[in-house]
Amino acid sequence: MDTDNIFSLGELFEQVQMKNIFSDGKSFVDCTPSDNLSNIKSRYESEKNKPGFDLSDFVHENFTLPMQVSTVYKSDTERPVKEHLKMLWDVLTRQPKESHDSLINLPHPYIVPGGRFREIYYWDSYFTMLGLQFSGKADIIQNMVDNFSFLVDTIGYIPNGNRTYYIGRSQPPFFACMVKLLSEEKGENILVEYLATMVKEYDFWMKGTNQLSVTTRAVSRVTLMPDGSILNHYWDENDTPRPESFKEDVELAWHAIDKKIMYRHLRAGAESGWDFSSRWFRNGNDFSTIHTTEIIPVDLNCLLHNLEITIAKGFQLSGDVVSADKYRALADSRKKAILEYCWNDGKGFFTDYDYVVSRQKDSMTLAAVFPLFFNIASQIQAKKVAENIEKYFLKSGGLITTTETTDQQWDAPNGWAPLQWIAIKGLQNYGHYDLTKNIVKRWMQLNEKVYKNTGKMMEKYNVVSTDLLAGGGEYPAQDGFGWTNGVYQAMKELVGKG
Question: Which of 162, 187, 280, 381 could form a disulfide with 104 if both were Cys (CB 3.0 to 4.6 A apart)?
Fold first, then answer.
């Protein structure tokens, strides 16, 4: 779409989204216009007050709807899951092409998640790559890493997805994990090859650090902690409703004292990838109390610790010992701060930290396994986390996302493939093999059961009542599905190794 800004359609855009011309707000912002937006807007202004004007007819005459994967591919439940997934990689692969809609063109082929998600998503892609690795598709992994490098070079960071309406926010920074995954296939020098890109991404997340002070504790995505250390939170450069969820955002902010602050919290929640969860709420299941930008998330900071460690290793391999020592010191400082502010000894669990009120959040979430995945936790801490995971999170179909049951999709009763993987690998790092085998068995059996019944691998699953599909959130459960496929294949490999 001719979208320097989708809001350039003004009233037309707002009317289409608020009147539910499409059941999913993302459909309109993914449409391809028949003309440039300024001309369409002019036609709308001249026709909207004429007798018999129909908004839906006008939109369908001037825009082409995006194609659904389900219209070009039908699964066969008689086909084994392994064969189904092998075929799906081609179905979910997109080739570079010039677009005239909201899509940001990429130089290399890439994998999309599926369903309504017709573009790449940042953190999804790492888990998709796990499956590509076990499918022997290192060339596609290379292409996707190169696409992300292209985005960092051209935009300055990796956006939520390659759509113009995602500009302003990123997602959980898994790029260093992707580079390390690629290095497993092509050698350690890959860390040097993508070093400049990793440094540029790090600078994006740390932007504003030199402006922090005792009177200015938070700038952009960085926060000055009471002990002088620096930790990060989620943010977005914009404080307007998300174009793809315009109606939902406007209605939620209807009674907000400061709508712009509300929109910023919603956008930051989208940057977290956990959109949405009671994790980001000040009060229980009250969505209107979302305060994402005030929270130090344990998983985000573990990912940035990993980025610092990976950059340090890249500099070490390149022979720049001074820079390697600099980033290693930054990683050490962050690790100390994570353990100081995010370890809750009373709960025996890692939790997020509310820096505005200077105390830990009460929410127990699967973000607690990230310090295990990145080997930040002590053995004693890992043991306590494992006990709590088994006691509170393990259900018949795998792990719930939080201990709160709400109508948000990143809460119970839902389970998500990426968090199952982070949990099992993190627990394995500390020797909790029996628990991980149990999680893997339950999750894979649920995946296989739903596939047999529906022919689909789903975006998320109800792990509590395994006869029910997952629900909640701003859109229906999607099938495809990139990261579920990748994690299933990676787990299959683990099972094969015993």
Answer: 162
Find, among 68, 67, 54, 1, the residue nearest to 29 by Cα: 1
Q: What are phi and psi of 49, to 5 degrees?
A: -100, 5
**413 cis-preceded (ω within 30 degrees of 0):** yes
Q: Token digits for 97?
A: 């092409």
Q: What is the Cα–Cα distance from 157 to 171, expressed in whole angstroms?
A: 10
pLDDT at 498: 59
Helix (H) or strand (E) holding 355: none
How many angstroms separate the CA atoms of 59 and 344, rounded?
53
Tallying the residues shown for the chain, one arrives at 498
For 166, which DSSP code?
Answer: G
Q: Residue 274 and residue 268: Cα distance in Å, rounded?
A: 10
Under DSSP, is residue 33 helix (H, G, I), strand (E, B) or coil? strand
DSSP string, 207-239: TTGGG--SS--EETTEEE-TTS-EEE----S--
Ramachandran class of 284: left when φ > 0, alpha when ψ lies in -120 to 50, beta otherwise: left
What's the confidence (pLDDT) of residue 299?
98
User: One of 236, 244, 459, 479 is an active-site residue; which one?
Assistant: 459
The pTM of the whole model exceeds 0.85? yes
Residue 301's contacts (CB-CB under 8 Å, 6 or more residues apart) are 231, 232, 334, 337, 338, 342
Annotated catalytic residue within 30, 119, 271, 275: 275
What is the Cα–Cα distance from 241 to 409, expressed in whole angstroms?
A: 20
- For 72, 287, 288, 361, the CA distances from 284, given in Å and listed in that order, are 42, 8, 10, 11
Return the residue matching tokens 């026709």: 47
Outline where 357-481 has alpha helix (H). Answer: 370-373, 379-388, 417-429, 433-454
Intra-chain end-to-end CA distance of the chain, in Å: 50
Active site residue 249: no
Check if 258 is active-site. Answer: no
Closest by Cα among 410, 423, 170, 422 to 281: 410
Residues of the chain scoring pLDDT < 70 = 1-6, 68-74, 472, 474-477, 498
**CA proximity to 480, closest of 125, 127, 28, 116:** 116
Question: What pLDDT, on a 0 to 100 scale, did the predictor assign at position 209?
Answer: 98
Find, among 3, 112, 28, 51, the residue nearest to 478 by Cα: 112
Q: Give the model's pLDDT for residue 376.
A: 98
Choose among 475, 455, 473: nearest CA to 401.
473
Cα–Cα distance for residue pair 482/81, rounded to 1 Å: 14
Residue 278 and residue 363 in contact, taking contact as beta carbons nearer than 8 Å: yes
**pLDDT value of position 151:** 98
CA distance 143 to 189: 17
How confident is the model at residue 82, as a pLDDT?
A: 85
Tell me 22's DSSP state: S
